[in-house]
Amino acid sequence: MTKRFEIAYLLKNDVSALLGTNITVKGWVRTKRGNKNVAFIAINDGSIIHNIQVVADPAKFEEELRHITTGACIGVEGKLVESQGSGQAVEIQAEKIVVYGEADPDSYPLQKKGHSMEFLREIGHLRLRTNTFGAVMRMRHEMAYAIHTFFHERGFFYFHTPLITASDCEGAGEMFHVSTLDPENPPRDKEGKIDWEQDFFGKFTALTVSGQLEGELGATALGKIYTFGPTFRAENSNTPRHLAEFWMIEPEMAFYDLDSLTQLEEEFIKYLVRWALDHCKDDLEFLNKMIDPGLIERLKSVVDTDFVRLPYTEGIKILEEAVAKGHKFEFPVSWGVDLASEHERYLVEHHFKKPVIMVDYPKEIKAFYMKQNDDGRTVQGTDVLFPQIGEIIGGSVREESYDKLLTRINELNIPMKDMWWYLDTRRYGSCPHAGFGLGFERLMLFVTGMANIRDVIPFPRTPGNANF
Ligand code: 4AD
Ligand code: MG
Predict the structure, then answer these.
(1) Cα gap 72→58, rounded to integer Å
(2) Cβ distance 433 to 220 under 8 Å?
(3) 433 in a domain, yes or no?
(4) How far is the CA of 395 from the centre of ligand 2 (A)?
(5) pLDDT, tens digit, for every residue of 195-214?
(6) Mutation test of ligand 1: which of 236, 238, 247, 248 has the most ligand atoms closer than 8 Å to its C-beta?
(7) Which of these three, 62, 77, 110, is where a domain ends?
(8) Is 165 within the bounds of a domain?
(9) Closest C-alpha to ligand 1, atom 18
(10) Which residues 6+ apart lie within 8 Å of 66 measured at CB?
(11) Phi then psi for 365, rounded to 5 degrees?
């Protein structure tokens, strides 16, 4: 066969020099139609949402065409010509067709369009071949690239934190244990408890819920770092916004305060949304048409608005006023409560109608490491709240005072034996610093308009499901 071209190349470049020459394309058949005089085969190779059309003579390719059905993988060599029909610029007049892999039409599950997302999750090994998942996965790649570019341009270092750890950063106790002990018959200590000292690492270990604590070690040496890796939470949250395995981006910056922190959070998200608009046009247009008609407008509106800075205490006042005026929430609102997603969405979607960065939360509802305010009851935590999504970023200024941090650790009964190395950052050259975590799949929900977080990651892990 002649030189193979990817479909994205053929549709996105000036290919006039190739017109009339023989080229090869390879990919998976999306549709085959036609009559006894002419056959049209639409091929997609994943490089772009669009297909290329192959025109074939049914008399010449009678045998091949019998094996070509939706889902089959083929290679086609033929003349590249300007397309006669509308909808595409160029097409290929087949001169040679190779069928690499048939797809039995009686059993191939992706026959018709318009399968439900629930059904597609059951065939997670094949759903990647649909237009929707192709668009989402290409955008995942673009966003990951944009994230590295953003930080690289600003002098941050990509810092790799461990996945296996002994410390529960968020203190929620929702960790997946990592062990090689025999679960049927683990070694016991004198008190009959499982003897983790005999385990692989000589102590109890688990998968990380966040790279932050080690990230702080990086930031207090390198100045500005970010992590970008998988995190694991064994929380039993069966919602459209929670995964048990998700990817998080966690920048950590020495000498940042609350203002510079929230500024970076806003700049970061706007950069990523703008990147999506600039670099994912075809996929966004598809998603806007097929999934969420408000998508592109919503992305544009975020890029052009200033995010609101809202102290928690003021947010509670707004919510209490809403209740007084008759608005019904499922969960009660008063100072001190952890906001439910209905509260966050009320503030973002009804009250301000733009993204909100909430700051200065009650210390009781936030993690031990957040910097305490002088009022003695709030901490410099920030959540970035987004339309449709709710919390997309969580972050804070970190408590840099050794004494205050230690007091808080003791108040919360966090085992000190796991924390000595973290406290050392406050014992030796302690510095003001801050950081945040962006949930990658929450970002993907926002930029794709998809409704369920299970559909923006190739292979979702949720309670009761670790298929594929
Ligand atoms: O708010 P979280 O728990 O913050 C931290 O983990 C901090 N250590 C971050 C930091 O300051 N370096 O999580 C951060 C973000 C959330 O805002 C959310 O976007 C996402 O991670 N997230 C989840 N995404 C999907 N599924 C889950 N179960 C998630 N839990 C948190
Ligand atoms: Mg949070």
Answers:
(1) 17
(2) yes
(3) yes
(4) 7
(5) 999 999 999 999 999 999 99
(6) 248
(7) 110
(8) yes
(9) 439
(10) none
(11) -100, 5
